[in-house]
Amino acid sequence: MPNPTQALATLKSRLLEIQHLKDAAALLSWDQETYMPAGGGQTRAEQLATLQTLAHAKFVSPEIEDLLLHHIDPATGLANTEANGLDEASKALLRETWRDFSKAKKLPSDFVNRLERECSLAQQTWAEARRRGDFMHFLPNLQTVIALKLEEIDYLGYDDSPYDALLDTYEPGATVAQLQPLFATLRHGLLDILKHVQEASLPPDDRILFQSYDENQQVTFGKLVLNRMGYDFNRGRVDLSAHPFTTSFHPTDVRVTTRVFEKELPSCLFSCIHEGGHGLYDQGLLQEQYGTPLGESLSHGIHESQSRLWENNVGRSKAFWTYFFPLLQEHFPSQLGAVPLDAFYAALNTVKPSLIRVEADEVTYNLHILVRFEIELALIEKRVEVKDLPGLWREKMQEYLGIVPERDSEGVLQDVHWSLGALGYFPTYTLGNLYASMFFQQARQDIPALETDIQRGHLLSLKAWLNHNIHQYGRQYSATDLLHRITGCELSVEPFLSYLRAKIGDIYGFTITR
């Protein structure tokens, strides 16, 4: 048997080969979302299924298992005495690889193939169903995907709720039992803020945001902001897609997408900033750890914290627009030339229940997530049938936001996630908001001049802080450990609620004391 250093080097070499297969599949998926002709759907599904099946088979091979068992105690999942000569980062690499291997080994290759193929087909059917506003067109595909996810849960196993098996994929260690009380506290606080907003006598006028804005100029301005954020266009690009997303094939090839509407200025702008936050994370991962868990983002919640921090804590702040609003006025002089900064800032932060999650304001956004979380949980715990989702969606929207979609495209069909099999993903959006507030609060303490930097359009000090404290570590720490390492605190909803009470209260003229 090779010594620990040699075995680790061999393992990393094998993981790199597997990562190349995954990245080839990711490139095909990116193309499917951006440039693939509609007629290529069936073949693309087969291509993706083949690549993912090959990657899975190589990962769960006896060779990988033998290399891991040289270093890992399978009873604990931690490094054994054979790994004593390795540094802490290498031990973390082994721990996380064993975690991934243990889960992947439970999934038969033929199941991985079926799941990948059906999700690829479902995504294409969802896009057409969304365009038509016809849930019934998507229903058979979604039923197939849900059945496969339930089969996946049976393979993976769980202790409490079956939803935990899916949630753990996106937010390792998180459980329904942990999230429900956290989300209940958050819901109470958000509804309280929303009540004060709705009782305010002089709400902001946001009509200036919905004039006619040249689409090319919108994209140009979005790229300008991305450049100031430190997004490296030599290692990335911006494209258009129906649903904005970020794809990374390597820290030197990170691609973001946005969408643009002529009469909705915030859509393209905040999609660029949001996806740019994701892109900065992926560009900030260590290149020498590519292919290993230390070259991957920690969790979807931590990844989302980066996009929400840039989009909201920075991009919707008055400090940000002190610098960027004059530049935006230069791009759109007839629409915004005579608009005062304070009026524009207030318009951007208008709180108004709406149907579409990705266009929601900071107060109501997480109510959208709670709707999805509760629906997913009921679906996976078999308390509701797939065919009943449109009606349940309308009920939840009425309960949480007081509005009901008239069309499925504005309701149950608006998100791509279920077609991709990404159940258990939605809660990480809310976790991302909570993490973001705590990280940004700490960044302001660590960088005394941060507010001034942002007012001057100097955003690289914040990027450097995020690179140093979060991005460079990959999956070396758990989300809980990383949060405590940076802030010294446990996850809490209070920093986020305090931030919203102060900011929205200032704009709407109310005070909530706690």
Task: Explain what you see.
This protein has 514 residues and is mainly alpha-helical. Helices cover 63% and strands 4% of the residues. The protein has 21 helices and 5 strands. The chain has helices at residues 4-34, 41-59, 62-69, 88-105, 109-132, 135-156, 163-170, 176-199, 215-229, 265-284, 300-314, 318-331, 333-336, 341-348, 362-380, 389-401, 427-446, 450-455, 460-469, 479-487, 494-508; strands spanning 72-73, 78-79, 236-240, 246-250, 253-258. The strands form 2 sheets. Strands 3-5-4 form a 3-stranded mixed β-sheet, with helices on both faces. Helix 9 packs parallel to helix 10. It is globular.
Strand order of the largest sheet: 3-5-4
- Helical fraction: 55-70%
Class derived from helix and strand content: mainly alpha
Shape: globular
> What kind of sheet is the major sheet?
3 strands, mixed
Distance between the amino and carboxyl termini: 62 Å
Radius of gyration: 23 Å
Short account of what is shown:
The protein is built from 21 helices and 5 strands. It is mainly alpha-helical and 514 residues long.
Keywords:
514 residues; mainly alpha; 3-stranded mixed β-sheet; two-stranded antiparallel ribbon; globular
Topology:
Layout: H1 4-34, H2 41-59, H3 62-69, E1 72-73, E2 78-79, H4 88-105, H5 109-132, H6 135-156, H7 163-170, H8 176-199, H9 215-229, E3 236-240, E4 246-250, E5 253-258, H10 265-284, H11 300-314, H12 318-331, H13 333-336, H14 341-348, H15 362-380, H16 389-401, H17 427-446, H18 450-455, H19 460-469, H20 479-487, H21 494-508
Parallel strand pairs: 3-5
Antiparallel strand pairs: 1-2, 4-5
Helix pairs in contact: 1-2, 2-5, 5-6, 8-15, 8-21, 9-10, 9-12, 10-11, 11-17, 12-14, 15-16, 15-17
